Every structure is written in C-alpha cells, then in structure tokens.
C-alpha cells in the first residue's frame, strides 16, 4: 500500500515493487530534510498550517513545523454538553492554542453545530434533512447569545498575545450571512480579521460579494464537494463524488481563489484536500494562498511543494481543470509534473 496516496496494489509485479520501494526511499530522504516555511521551488510563499480539534493537537502540529493553525475546530468544547460552556472555560482552551503559535496565524472556526454534529441544547432534533437545515452559522444566528459568548471569549484569550487571531464562520451561503457575522464580530470588539468558509457552491459563485463583508475566505473542500455533488459525505457508496480531484470541485475553488485575488484578500483551503501532496500543488496553481491539513501530512506536502515552481503548479492546475474526471485529473497532473 502507498500510504501517501491511499492506493493498494494487489500482487504487485517485480517492476511495480521496485518502483514502490524506490519511491518509499525517496520519500524517507525527503521527509528527513523537511523543514521551514512552505514555498515553491522559485520562492512563492504558501503558508502551511495545521487543522486541530483542540489543545491536545497542538504539540503534534508544532512538531510537524506548522506555521500556524488554518482550522481550529471549537466543537470539542460543546460536544456532549447539556449547556454551552462558560466563557471562562472557553478562554482557557483558546489561550492555550494561541500561546503555542507565538506570532503565527491562528484561524478559529466558530461553533459548527448541526448535521453530523448535533447538540441537544442547541440544534433541532426533528429536521427532515439536517445537512440542508439549520447548521453552522444558521444555528448561531438563531442563538446569538452563544455566538457572542464565543467571540468575547476569543477576544479575551487573545488579549496581550502576539498571535494573529482570525475568526471565521461556517456554512456561509451569501453576502447577507457574511454581513451578519461581521456585524456581530464588530459589536463584541473582536480583534483581528474575520472571514467566511466556502462550503456551499453559492458562496464560491458569489465569493466577490462575500468578500465585500469579510477579510478572507477559507475553503472547506469536504462540505463543498458534498453540496456540489449532492453526495452525503458519510455515505461510502458516494465516495467517488467526494473525491477532491473532481474537476467541477476544482472549478469552484478557482472561482473563490480568483475573487479573493481580485479583492486583494487571502483564500486558503482547510479541507483535507490540502493534505494530498500533488493536489496541494494544484491548489497553489489555482491561486489558493495557504494550505491547512492534519499535522502528519505537513512534511510531505512541504517537500513536494518545494520541488515545483509556481508556473509548474499553474500548469498542473490547468491540466486538472481540463480533465474529464477525477482519475483523469490525477493522470494529467502526474504527467505535467513528471511524476512516475
């Protein structure tokens, strides 16, 4: 099995075995020397950040060389709770993470409740289709006291620390959603930037108008694929449609990244698509400005990105967008980048 791609080879031939062993040796050597900030071969900066679920994930992220946090999931504080956690408990958890990354960027996603993360005290129990119902920012706008308490806790936690706190809302559908979130951030005096996640196709299609209200975008590729292809991410039979190499998904990412570039603002990817080393190069070529992933993926993505110039990444992105399907996109990119 190739752990970097997830491919399983049944009864490989002697030649296939030799190629895989050579690839594994090259990978070991590359990972041993993987360090420093994320850059392409010609010096184009692509900050490599970590996705974390709470303070327990900080040590692994720091050890892997994360330049900050691109997705701090805050649900761990709320899951299994019968009431919202106190602001004091939230401050302690947030401050632990902010302290660990010095002057780095820490992007916090406010509570994303609903769908596969129901909360008994917050989300409705009788929705016919929770994934298309009241979840994410929709839940928080129906319970503004929960959102305000979380934002106040984040503001308190960041006080006196050098970390660059940025806060983003999940499940933003349009400019009205973005404006509502930004207004609450301003009301509580939240320092730093506030942004919107692009997880719904409408947000990608109208990214420019959303950026009129917020400072940055962050693309959640898992949910974006789910909603673009009407394919429940929890149903294994639909895995083909959840493949982040799908050209239609790459088109939506390109739309959001292009709108951010036009507005002079940043657009990162925090879905696990960023953890695929070759796809990380494609995302860079599409104009994505930062990549966030699980800590274990950081060294290989850093090493792979450093092998190619920005122009090569753009050529790979063009090849992937022009492909017929996900498998064709993989083949086309491997050919453009000269990967065996």
From TrEMBL:
Residues 37-307 form the PEP-utilising enzyme C-terminal domain. It holds the Pfam family PEP-utilizers_C. Keywords: Kinase, Pyruvate, Transferase. The keyword tRNA processing does not apply. One of its GO terms (molecular function) is kinase activity. Signal peptide: none annotated. This is Phosphoenolpyruvate-protein kinase (PTS system EI component). The lineage of its organism: Bacteria, Bacillati, Actinomycetota, Actinomycetes, Kitasatosporales.
């Amino acid at each position: 099995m190739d752990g970097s791609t997830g491919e399983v080879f049944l009864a490989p031939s002697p030649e296939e075995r030799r190629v895989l062993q050579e690839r594994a040796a090259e990978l070991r050597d590359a990972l041993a020397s993987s360090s420093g900030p994320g850059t392409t071969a010609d010096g184009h900066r692509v900050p490599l950040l970590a996705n974390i679920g709470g303070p327990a994930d900080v040590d692994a992220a720091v050890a892997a060389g994360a330049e900050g946090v691109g997705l701090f999931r805050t649900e761990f504080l709320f899951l299994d709770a019968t009431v919202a956690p106190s602001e004091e408990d939230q401050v302690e958890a947030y401050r632990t993470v902010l302290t660990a990354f010095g002057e780095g960027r820490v992007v916090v996603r406010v509570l994303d409740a609903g769908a596969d993360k129901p909360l008994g005290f917050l989300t409705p129990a009788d929705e016919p289709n929770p994934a298309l119902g009241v979840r994410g920012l929709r839940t928080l706008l129906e319970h503004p006291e929960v959102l305000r308490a979380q934002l106040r806790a984040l503001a308190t936690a960041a006080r006196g620390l050098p970390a660059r706190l940025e806060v983003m809302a999940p499940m933003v559908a349009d400019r009205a959603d973005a404006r509502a979130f930004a207004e609450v951030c301003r009301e509580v005096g939240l320092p730093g930037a506030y942004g919107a996640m692009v997880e719904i196709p409408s947000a990608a299609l109208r990214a420019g108008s959303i950026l009129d209200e917020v400072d940055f975008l962050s693309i959640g590729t898992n949910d974006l694929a789910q909603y673009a292809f009407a394919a429940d991410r929890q149903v294994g039979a639909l895995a083909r449609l959840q493949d982040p190499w799908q050209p239609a998904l790459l088109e939506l990412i390109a739309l959001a990244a292009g709108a951010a570039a036009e507005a002079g603002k940043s657009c990162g990817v925090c879905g696990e698509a960023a953890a695929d080393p070759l796809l990380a190069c494609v995302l860079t070529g599409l104009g994505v400005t930062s990549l966030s992933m699980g800590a274990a993926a950081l060294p290989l993505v850093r090493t792979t990105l450093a092998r190619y110039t920005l122009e090569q990444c753009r050529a790979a992105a063009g090849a992937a967008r022009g492909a017929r399907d996900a498998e064709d996109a993989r083949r086309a990119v491997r050919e453009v980048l000269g990967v065996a």
